[in-house]
Amino acid sequence: MKRKHQRIHPEERDLQTWESPPFSRRIKISDLHPKRSNRFSIKLNDLEKSNLAKFLNVNQIHLFKCAIDLQPSEPGWLVLGKINLVASQLCVITLEKVRTNLQITLKRYLTPESERLLNESVLLDLDLVDSDPLNESVELGDIISEEIILVLPQYPRKQGAGFLKDTISLENDERPNPFQKLSELKKHMGEVSPNKNKK
Prior knowledge:
The protein is α+β, with helices and mostly antiparallel strands. The chain has 4 helices and 9 strands. The chain is elongated.
């Protein structure tokens, strides 16, 4: 399954398109046991971590652990998994490095195209919303990368960091107020000639 991945950088808003996942773990459906769970442990080498960091727009990936379980589920397959990721990002306020720790629960269905079209033409079963087409093989690198990017903070902030509050206070403004001067002058004129408009 080939997809285009798009990631917009929060600062530069540049569009980066990936023709393939940052790492590949392609599993043939025919190699899976049709009546029991099929477990996989996904580990990344240094190059794959670097590519994933570029895809996610993070400075560095310190930890990546992923366990995937492919289970037969008529009419297709159920993809279950747990992803642990620790990465360094830049705080959008202080530009200091922030460590992001993600623990992601993954759940996807792989369903035949005919079944997907049927579900789109009627009311969707909520359990089938997160579904992918069932092909001869499944690209776990695609699915894992997408799950991470969906929950990764796009605007990370260092704990306690915040924008400076407005220090201007109108109550403490000691500059002369022209309207106040005008009001005082009018009051003074009234005291000098209080009977001016009286006959």
